[in-house]
């Protein structure tokens, strides 16, 4: 009798890999090069085992069926990394706090909208770091129409980000004074964001490579460590769409290893290695 608890590598065919590639491209715009074949095996075979489906083929049929809609989240989750941390690329948050937010204050106090977007927010350290920087530069931000839109394709990470609860090691990158100001300890010893800061982020599930039901434009957009999954044309198209969503003079922050290849055509000027300003 076949042992349904194991999925041997010999059962993982090239056709299976091609199918995973096709799903990743169609559902998330994620490009999996041929070099990722073994990685896909190790990540996805875990899901095949956990669901006790016995073979990659059975898993791929399930995930593409209506009943497998939730599992699609797990598959995308298995194919991407959600690694993130508080104040990752500290210079971006210094720039936001000292340049961008001060420029927004008088407009927002006069009744206009203030908007910042964390465009692949993972489990939340990025939008919550933005929120702490905003509250430091503009302490009454939460009493005005000031919001941080925080989106990710993955509903599981968006749910975690919305909770705003983190373990002691996760919050090591947050200055002690800010932990005291913006967080409380939970009975289990975790840290939870509390008080007015909780009104700033608005969390949503959003695929960057699909349509965006988003109104208005942003003073700053963080799109960091996500385009590494996309091919060149998907990436360029995304940069153009993000540039279109920036206010004139607004800023785009990208990951430390990323560059906006089409900056000129997108109407962006590079002001630091990973910071771009939208032209007026
Ligand atoms: C490495 S994390 C980056 C988190 C954060 N921006 C940072 O730099 O710390 C990459 C995130 O991109 C998300 N992602 C991957 N493809 C996406 C897509 N097509 N649309 C939106 N988010 C996507 C993943 O779910 C993951 O949470």
TrEMBL record:
Keyword annotations for this protein, in alphabetical order, are: Methyltransferase, S-adenosyl-L-methionine, Transferase
Superkingdom assignment? Bacteria
Q: Name one GO molecular function term.
A: protein-glutamate O-methyltransferase activity
Enumerate the residues binding S-adenosyl-L-methionine: 82, 84, 88, 126, 152, 207-208, 224-225
Q: Which residues form the CheR-type methyltransferase domain?
A: 5-280
Job of this protein: Methylation of the membrane-bound methyl-accepting chemotaxis proteins (MCP) to form gamma-glutamyl methyl ester residues in MCP.
Coiled-coil ranges per the record?
none
UniProt-listed Enzyme Commission number(s): 2.1.1.80
Q: Where is the signal peptide?
A: none
Reaction equation(s) it catalyzes: L-glutamyl-[protein] + S-adenosyl-L-methionine = [protein]-L-glutamate 5-O-methyl ester + S-adenosyl-L-homocysteine
* UniProt-listed Pfam families: CheR (PF01739), CheR_N (PF03705)
Organism the protein comes from = Gluconacetobacter sacchari
Q: Name one GO biological process term.
A: methylation
Q: Write down what this protein is called.
A: Chemotaxis protein methyltransferase
Which top EC class is given?
transferase
């Amino acid at each position: 009798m076949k042992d349904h608890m194991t999925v041997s590598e010999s059962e993982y065919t090239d056709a299976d890999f091609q199918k995973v590639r096709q799903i990743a491209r169609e559902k998330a715009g994620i490009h999996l090069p041929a070099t990722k074949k073994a990685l896909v095996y190790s990540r996805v075979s875990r899901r095949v085992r956990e669901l006790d489906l016995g073979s990659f083929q059975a898993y791929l049929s399930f995930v593409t069926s209506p009943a497998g809609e939730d599992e699609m989240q797990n598959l995308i989750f298995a194919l991407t990394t959600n690694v993130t941390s508080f104040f990752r690329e500290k210079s971006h948050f210094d720039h936001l706090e000292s340049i961008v937010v001060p420029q927004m204050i008088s407009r927002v106090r006069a009744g206009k909208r203030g908007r910042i977007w964390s465009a692949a927010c993972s489990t939340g350290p990025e939008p919550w770091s933005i929120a702490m920087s905003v509250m430091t530069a503009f302490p009454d931000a939460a009493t005005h129409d000031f919001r941080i839109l925080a989106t990710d394709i993955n509903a599981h990470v968006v749910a975690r980000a919305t909770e705003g609860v983190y373990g002691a090691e996760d919050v090591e990158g947050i200055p002690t004074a800010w932990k005291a100001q913006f967080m409380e300890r939970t009975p289990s010893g975790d840290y939870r964001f509390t008080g007015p800061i909780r009104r700033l982020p608005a969390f949503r599930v959003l695929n960057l490579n699909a349509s965006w039901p988003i109104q208005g434009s942003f003073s700053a957009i963080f799109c960091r460590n996500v385009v590494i999954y996309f091919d060149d044309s998907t990436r360029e198209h995304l940069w153009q769409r993000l540039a279109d969503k920036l206010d004139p003079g607004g800023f785009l922050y990208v990951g430390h290893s990323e560059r906006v290849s089409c900056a000129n055509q997108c109407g962006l000027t590079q002001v630091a290695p990973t910071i771009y300003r939208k032209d007026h």
